[in-house]
Amino acid sequence: MARQNGIGAAKAGLAVTAAGVLANLLAYVVPVVGARQLSAADLSALATLLAMTAIAGVASTGLQIAVAVHRARHGPSSVARSAALTVLVTAGALVAALPIAVLVLRLPVFATVLAGVSTVGVVAAGRWLGEMQGDQRFGPLAVGLAVLAGGRYGGVVVGLAAGMGLTGALLLGAATAVLVLPVLHLLARRPGVAADGQPLTARAVLTAGGATLAMLVVSYADLLLARRFLPFDASGAYAVGTVLTKGALWAPQVVTILALPRLAQSDRRTLRVALALVAACGVVLVAGAAVAGGLAFRLAGGPGYADLGRYAPVFAATGAVYGVLFVLVNAQVAAGARWPAAPLWASAAGFALVAWLALPHTVPGIAFGALGTAVVALVITSVLVGLRLRAPVTEPSPGHATLSVD
C-alpha cells in the first residue's frame, strides 16, 4: 500500500509538474515573443501590465488556496458565495485602480482595460482549481492548470506572434481567458458528492488572498520600481532580467501545490521536505545562471540583452529566495496563522522607500535591492514559522488524509 501511494504521488507530481511547466513556459514566452515583436516602450508596457494583472490575479490564487485548505480540513462544502464575492471585489478594485495606473505608469488605455478583463476570468477560475487541489485530485487539477494557462497566456502569445501588436494580442488573450471557465467547471464536478461541510467564509478567502497578494507585490515590486525610476530602455532590459527571477520562483511551484492539503492537516514532515526540495531547486538554478548568464539573457530577450548576463545570478537568486519564502507563507496560511502576510508587506514597503531614497536608479541597483528585500522577508518569516512550530501540535481532522490521483 505504501508503495502504491508513493507511485500515485509520483504520478501526481509528474502531472502537475507538466502542467506547471506548460504554464510557466507560456508565461515566459509572452515577454520573449514581445521582445522580438514590440518596441522597447511597448515591451515595457506589456511587462508592466503582466505584473499588474499578476498582482490583481492573486485573488485567484488566494481563492484557490482558501478553497483547497477548507476542503482538506472539512471535505466538500459550499464555496459559491465566497467565490462570487471574490470575483466581484476584484472587478471593483480593478475599475478603481486601472485608471490611476494608466496615469501614473503611462500605460495605453485600451490595452490596460483588456488586461483587466483577462484578470477577472483568471480570478473566477480559482474556485474550481481549489476544489480539485483540496480533494487531492491532482490529475484533473493538472489538466485544469494547463487549460487555464492556455487561456491566460496562449491568446497573447498567438496575437504577438501574428503581429497583432500590444492591443490586439491582449484582446485575444482576454477572450481566451474567459472561454476556458466552463471547461474548468466541468473538470471540478464530482457527481454524487454532496457539499455538506461547513461553508467557506469570506474571512478565510481574505486571509489567503491577502497573503498571496503580498507575495506577488513583494516579488514584482522591483519591476514596478524599475518602470518608475529607470528610462524606458533600461526598464525594458530589467523586464528581461525578471524572466530569470520568475523562472527560479515558479520552477518548484509543484512542490507547494502538492504539499498544501497536507500542510492544512499539520503535517510537519511535509513542510521539511517541501523546503528542502524548493531550496535545492533554487541552488541549481542560481548555479546555472552563474555559469550561463549571457545565454540566459539572450534566450529571454534576444542578443541585444546578452551583455547583462553578469547580473543573471542576482535575478535568479532573488527568485530562489522567494521560492523558499512562499513555501513558508503558504504553510502559515494552511496553519491558520493570523497575519501571515505581515513580513511581506513590511518588506515591500521598505524596498519602495529605500529605492526612492537610497538605491542607485540603475539595473543592478534595483536588482540588488530586490535580493536584499527577499532575504529580509525570508528571515522574518522563518522566525515566525519557528515560533509556531514550537507550539503544541493540533491533531488534524480525519477524512482527507489519503492521496487521490484520479
Descriptive report:
There is one protein chain. With 406 residues, the protein is mostly helical. The protein has one domain (2-389). It is 80% helix and 0% strand. It contains 16 helices and no strands. The longest helix has 36 residues, at 2-37. The relative contact order is 0.14. Residues 394-406 have low confidence and may be disordered.
Write out key terms for the chains shown.
406 residues, mainly alpha, 16 helices, disordered C terminus, membrane, transmembrane, Polysaccharide biosynthesis protein, transmembrane helix
| Secondary-structure element pattern, one letter each | HHHHHHHHHHHHHHHH
| Tally of individual helices | 16
Radius of gyration: 20 Å
State the separation between the terminal residues, measured CA to CA.
16 Å
What is the number of beta strands? 0
**Relative strand content:** under 5%
Domain count: the total is 1
Roughly what percent helix? over 70%
Q: What is the SS-derived class?
A: mainly alpha
Average per-residue pLDDT, rounded, comes to 84
Largest sheet: none
Low confidence ranges: 394-406
Principal-axis shape:
globular
